[in-house]
Amino acid sequence: MGTVTIRDVRKIYNKLEVLKGVSVDIRDGEFLVLVGPSGCGKSTLLRMIAGLEEISSGDISIGGQIINDLAPKDRDIAMVFQSYALYPHMTVEQNMTFALRLKGMSPAERKERVARAAGILGLTPYLERLPKELSGGQRQRVAMGRAIVRSPAVFLFDEPLSNLDAKLRVQMRSEIKQNHARLKTTTVYVTHDQIEAMTMADRIVVMHDGLIEQIGTPLELYDRPANVFVAGFIGSPA
Ligand code: ADP
Ligand code: MG
Relative to the CA of 158, which ligand 1 atom is closest? Predict the structure, then answer.
């Protein structure tokens, strides 16, 4: 089960408290968007779910099991970075297969998983290409492919579209949503773009200065913002 429970999570860097007690229950199969201004703590929270950052206090569970002390590779998650995180010297197929090495899978199963993900993402004709021989959108699909091949319980995205141009960004949003409709993998998607949040989310978490201001569906936030911050953030142009 891909439920994620975040209980009163805090993060203190040196003496600076950047997460000040964050709690949210993420439902199995949900597409949850974390949104808020730059520096409010979105990436820090995502990195704590991934295990890339230690939790100062509080608990994070996946499928009911507390994972605070699990190594990143032992967590049932996959993180999607911006497309420039691809290995430049590896082909599309190798980039995707590499994500499965740690899992101790047979070559036959790895190949099958990569073929299936490539099919979903429309990458089948490009498996032998290097990242530099791909368009920006194709590279972003490969970055997603590396997560999909692992069939994790949870996908984590940290501003995956922020280095794409506006037109491609709109197209990739809808592709990510289509993939989600197909795979139904619990997703936590970070963006500072309120339009992206409003168009993609099942529910939105609005963060500000290390705290959650409001959690709700796009419509709830739009119709009944909890405070002036949420109203201003959701209501302002990108
Ligand atoms: P966001 O992703 O919402 O833009 P971050 O989670 O990256 O915000 O950062 C939240 C705050 O934590 C910022 O003030 C940032 O400067 C600080 N911060 C992030 N990482 C570190 C770190 N490794 N050491 C010290 N401060 C950090
Ligand atoms: Mg960030």
Answer: 2
